[in-house]
Amino acid sequence: MDKQLLDAYLGSEYRVRLARGGAAVIRVGQPLPPALDAVAGDREWGFLTAWNPGSQPQPAPVNRAAERRLLADARALAGVTVHPAYGVGTDGWREPSFWLLGIQRAQLAELGQRYRQRAWLYGANRGPAQLCLSP
Fold it and tell me: Are strands 94-101 and 81-88 parallel, antiparallel or unpaired?
């Protein structure tokens, strides 16, 4: 992955919509914000999208169809709850995404690879958000 793309992933905000309105922001290398930490506790979590596989822009209908498939796949995982989210880049980039609570790291990696994503976030045990790169 080139430095510019890596820097974009590292500098983005990963926002999770809150039930009471607004959003909580996840940042790479930092623990979850208090509003999300209270929900997650010690459970594993991931942040993933199906939009723009391979970091290549796709038409909106293609992206929406992929996101619906990802939602169905995530909901089919036992013990995983899905929360609406979106990524926001410093250059105006924005992608609908999901915060997946209770997902195991291997499950998250499998979904990331299935949807040809170059990167996703993972966290566990109240540790910092980790940027995971596709092999």
Answer: antiparallel
| Cα–Cα distance, 81 to 89 (Å, whole number) | 25
> What is the per-residue pLDDT across 106-122, written as a single tens digit (0 to 9) for each?
999 999 999 999 999 99
Provide the residue ranges of all domains of the chain, joining segments of one domain with +: 3-133
List the structure tokens of 124. Answer: 């566990």
Which residue in 4, 80, 116, 127 sits closest to 135, CA to CA?
116
Distance CA 101, CA 77 (A): 11
Q: pTM for this structure?
A: 0.95
In this structure, what is the dihedral angle of CA atoms 69, 118, 45, 38, given to the nearest 10 degrees? -110
Contact 51, 112 (CB under 8 A): no
- Could you read off the pLDDT of 37-56 as tens digits, one per residue? 999 999 999 999 999 999 89
Q: Is the pLDDT of residue 1 over 90?
A: no
| CB distance 27 to 14 below 8 Å | yes
